[in-house]
Specification:
The complex is a heterodimer of chains A (389) and B (138).
Chain A (H helix, E strand, L loop, with lengths): L8 E8 L10 H16 L8 E5 L9 H8 L6 E5 L8 H11 L5 E9 L13 E2 L14 H16 L3 H15 L13 H6 L2 E3 L2 E2 L8 E10 H4 L7 E9 L20 H13 L8 E4 L5 H9 L8 H6 L17 H4 L6 H12 L11 E5 L6 E7 L3
Helix pairs in contact in A: 1-2, 8-9
Chain B lengths: L10 E2 L6 H8 L4 E5 L5 E2 L14 E5 L3 E10 L5 H4 L4 E8 L4 E4 L14 E8 L5 E7 L1
Antiparallel strand pairs in B: 2-3, 2-4, 5-6, 5-8, 6-7, 8-9
The chains are: A alpha/beta (389), B mainly beta (138).
The structure holds zinc ion.
Zinc ion (ZN) binds next to loops of chain B.
Chain lengths: 389, 138
C-alpha cells in the first residue's frame, strides 16, 4: 500500500559548516556555505539547482527558499518547500527532494538545514504572557520546554518497561566514544556512565549529559537521479526508501501522554513505511542514524525500527549492541546530537551518506545500507540509503 | 537565559473552543468534551473526534477522580517564575473517565510522588479570570 521511487534517486553531495557555539554568521550565510560545499562535493554547479527543501521553524525566515535561491544563483527553481516539527522533519526535505527528482519535476534538488541554536535564544524562552493551543493547558503549570516534555514521557517509559537511567546514560557514553574519533564533533572527550549520572539534573530523570548539544551550524545534501548519479564524482547513496509518519491523534512531545498509548509513536509509522518502500527490514540495516535530542529517544527508535521488542531497548543498549565497531547495529557513528552537533538531525543524513561511501570516522565495515530516522516523538520521517541500487 | 523572558507565570489564552473549560474551572467544576456520537471523552479540547470524526460534542462534568500517570521535577534554566521555585514538580494525571491532563499537585511533597497514587481535582484561583485545575491526594 505504500510506495516510493525505490533507488530512482541518490544523494550525490554533502556539505557542512563547522559546528560551534557561536558561528558569528546568519543562518542564510551558513546555509549558503553548506550548499556550496555539497555542490562542490558532487561536482555540480549552483545554476543547475532547480529545487530547494529545508527544515524550518515557524518565525525563522532568514534562510527562506527565495533568499537562498537568490544568493545561490539558482535562477530556475521548479520545486521547494519547508518542513516543520523540528527534529521530526530531519529527513523530510530529502524525502521531498527525492520525490521532486523522481517525478521529473526537478533535476538537481538541494535539501538543507541551518540553525543557530547555540548562539540563539531557546524557543521556549520566548513564551508569552498568554499561551494558546495545547500550551494553554501546559505552560501555566510550568511545562514549556522539550526536555521537560520528554522527562514526563521518559518517567512513564521507565515505569512501564523497567528502563533505567544507567541505560539512557549508555547511549550518551557510546555516542561520545564515536565522537572522540570525529574531528567535526563539538564534544570529543570520552565520558562514563557515572559522568552522565552525576551531571546536573535538568528535568528528572534527564541529566545534562542525556541532552543534546546547543550548537550553530548548517548541513546540505544534493539529490539527483540515479542515472545521473552514476556519472558523478562520488559513490552515490541511493535512496531505497523514504517515508513520513504520524499515526493517530498525535500532538507534539508531551502530547504523547494524551494518547491512549504514549508509546504509539510517530516513528512506528515512519518505520513501517520506509521498510515497505525499500523492500527491507531491520535485518538489512548495517548502521542506524537515530535522532537523539535526548538519550531515551534512541531506545524508542531501536524499538520502533524493529531492532528490539518494545521495552527491550534498555537491555540492548546496556549489552553494547549499539556500540561501534562490534555492536549488532552501530548507532550514531558521528556522535549524533549528543556529541557531534545539534542541527535538528540533518547531520545524521550526512553521516548516513558517509557510511555508504565508506568515509565515516567510525566506518562500519562493508556498510551497504544506512537507516536515517528523524525524531520518534513528533511527526516523523525516515530514509533508507544503500550503496548498490 | 535571555533577559526578555516574562517574569510572571504564563496564563492561558482563552478561546471560543476552550472558554467552557475555564468557565467551569472558575465555578470549581472539571469539565472535558465528550463526543455526542461515540461517547469518547477527550482532552485537550478539539473541534472534532479522533475516534469517529464527529464534530458534535458536549462539555461534560467528570468526577475529578484520577491517578498520577507520570511526573518530573524541573530545574533551571526555567522561566523566571518557576526558576525562583525550583525544583518545580510537573504532573500528568489520568482521569477515571480516560483523558489525561498536565497539572500540578498540591499538598504532596516531591518525595511522595508515586505513579498510580490516587488524586482528586482541586482548583487554584490565579486571578479574577483564571482558575487552574490542580490535583490533591484522593
Ligand atoms: Zn466520536
Amino acid at each position: 500500500m505504500t510506495g516510493f521511487a525505490r533507488d530512482k534517486t541518490a544523494i550525490v553531495g554533502i556539505g557542512t559548516t563547522e559546528y560551534v557555539k557561536n558561528i558569528g554568521r546568519s543562518e542564510l550565510e551558513t546555509s549558503l556555505e553548506a550548499i556550496h560545499q555539497a555542490l562542490d562535493d558532487a561536482a555540480l554547479t549552483p545554476a543547475e539547482v532547480d529545487a530547494l527543501y529545508k527544515i524550518e521553524t515557524p518565525g525563522e525566515d532568514g534562510n527562506s527558499e527565495l533568499n537562498v535561491a537568490r544568493n545561490l544563483g539558482a535562477n530556475n527553481l521548479r520545486a521547494w518547500g519547508g518542513f516543520g516539527y523540528g527534529g521530526g522533519g530531519a529527513c523530510a526535505p530529502v524525502v521531498y527532494a527525492a520525490m521532486a527528482v523522481a517525478t521529473g519535476m526537478a533535476s538537481v534538488a538541494v535539501a538543507f538545514r541551518a540553525r543557530n541554536r547555540g548562539s540563539g535564544a531557546r524557543p521556549w524562552s520566548k513564551t508569552g504572557a498568554r499561551v494558546r493551543d495545547t500550551g494553554a493547558f501546559e505552560a501555566p503549570y510550568g511545562l514549556v520546554s522539550p526536555v521537560q516534555q520528554l522527562a514526563l514521557v521518559t518517567r512513564r517509559y521507565m515505569h512501564e518497561y523497567g528502563a533505567t537511567s544507567e541505560q539512557f546514560a549508555r547511549v550518551s557514553v557510546s555516542q561520545r566514544s564515536n565522537a572522540s574519533r570525529n574531528p567535526r564533533a563539538f564534544f570529543r572527550d570520552p565520558i562514563t556512565v557515572e559522568d552522565v549520572l552525576s551531571s546536573r539534573m535538568i528535568a528528572d530523570p534527564l541529566h545534562l549529559l542525556d541532552c543534546s548539544l546547543e550548537t550553530d551550524g548548517a548541513c546540505a545534501v544534493v539529490v539527483t537521479s540515479a542515472d545521473r548519479a552514476r556519472d558523478l564524482k562520488q559513490t552515490p547513496a541511493y535512496i531505497a526508501g523514504a517515508s513520513q509518519g504520524m499515526g493517530p491523534r498525535h500532538y507534539m512531545m508531551n502530547g504523547l501522554l494524551y494518547k491512549d498509548d504514549p508509546f504509539d509513536m510517530p516513528s512506528l509509522y515512519a518505520a513501517r513505511d520506509v521498510y515497505a518502500a525499500a523492500g527491507m527490514g531491520p535485518e538489512d540495516v548495517d548502521v542506524a542514524l537515530f535522532y537523539d535530542v535526548f538519550s531515551p529517544m534512541v531506545l524508542w527508535q531501536l524499538e520502533a525500527y524493529g531492532f528490539c521488542q518494545p521495552g527491550e531497548a534498555g537491555a540492548f543498549v546496556e549489552e553494547g549492541k549499539i556500540d561501534w565497531p562490534d555492536g549488532e547495529i552501530p548507532v550514531n557513528t558521528h556522535g549524533g546530537s549528543l556529541s557531534e552537533a545539534y542541527v535538528h538531525g540533518f547531520n545524521h543524513v550526512l553521516e548516513g551518506v558517509r557510511q555508504i561511501r565508506g568515509t565515516s570516522t567510525c566506518q562500519v565495515e562493508d556498510a551497504s545500507v544506512a537507516l536515517v530516522a528523524a525524531a520518534a516523538v513528533v511527526p516523523s520521517s525516515a530514509l533508507l540509503l544503500r550503496r548498490q541500487a | 537565559m535571555t533577559s526578555d523572558m516574562i517574569a510572571e507565570r504564563p496564563l492561558p489564552e482563552i478561546t471560543e473552543l476552550t472558554e467552557p473549560f475555564w468557565t467551569a474551572a472558575k465555578a470549581r467544576r472539571l469539565e472535558v468534551q465528550r463526543c455526542d456520537d461515540c461517547g469518547t471523552y477527550r482532552f485537550p479540547p478539539e473541534y472534532g473526534c479522533a475516534a469517529c470524526s464527529s464534530t458534535a460534542y458536549t462539555w461534560t462534568e467528570v468526577s475529578g477522580r484520577a491517578e498520577l500517570y507520570t511526573w518530573t521535577a524541573v530545574h533551571p534554566p526555567l522561566l523566571p517564575y518557576f526558576a525562583e521555585r525550583a525544583p518545580w514538580p510537573l504532573a500528568v494525571v489520568q482521569l477515571e473517565e480516560g483523558p489525561r491532563l498536565t497539572t500540578n499537585l498540591t499538598g504532596v511533597d516531591l518525595d511522595e510522588y508515586e505513579i498510580g497514587m490516587a488524586l482528586q481535582a482541586d482548583f487554584e484561583d490565579l486571578d479574577d479570570e483564571i482558575t487552574l485545575v490542580v490535583f490533591r491526594r484522593g
